[in-house]
Amino acid sequence: MGWHSDRAPPIPAEITALRDGGEPVWVFAYGSLLWDSEIREVAAEEALLRGYHRSFCLYSYDYRGTPENPGLTLGLDRGGSCRGAALRLSADAFDKVWQREMSGRPVYAPRALRVQTAKGPRQALAFTALPNCPDYAGRLPLDDAARIILGAAGRRGTCREYFENTLRHLDRLGLADRPLRRLAERVRALAEDGRI
Q1: For the whole model, what pTM was predicted?
Q2: Fewest CB atoms less than 10 Å from the CB: which of 140, 168, 177, 180?
Q3: Which residues form the catalytic set?
Q4: What is the 3-state secondary structure of 21-36?
Q5: CATH dotted code for 13-190
């Protein structure tokens, strides 16, 4: 299965140069970095990323699921666009985010991408989903994704908590995500029907 460790791989030279260039590093947040970040009190700007969309496209065998009952977590999958936030990080805060996002099984390709903010375009590091990794779920049927979200739990809590926290913070930020709303309706319908 390739590289696997509790430690993140070394930061690539081009990203180290970005981090060590004296300017703050911007990271594009689209899921749990909006609400469950180990970093606090950072500057954030609403941002639009084109070419990728927010999707429950990654299986989680640890944080939000187990090997026997995998959960789902969000990734940036190719196509469409995604509204999120550009977070302005110090080098120390960036190192924490790198460790958090890149440790464990390799599921993300970190990419420096252009995002649009109210203050103009910015270059931000985005953790995009690796479509060729074993943990890539791709686009699941709505009912399958809803059942997984309702039934999985891992070391950091239930998949449903992760899903609901993300929805709540997107709402607070005024960021509409119609596919996630449709999934939320299906999750609630299945939960009310007691089919899980």
Answers
A1: 0.85
A2: 168
A3: 101
A4: CCCCEEEEECCHHHCC
A5: 3.10.490.10
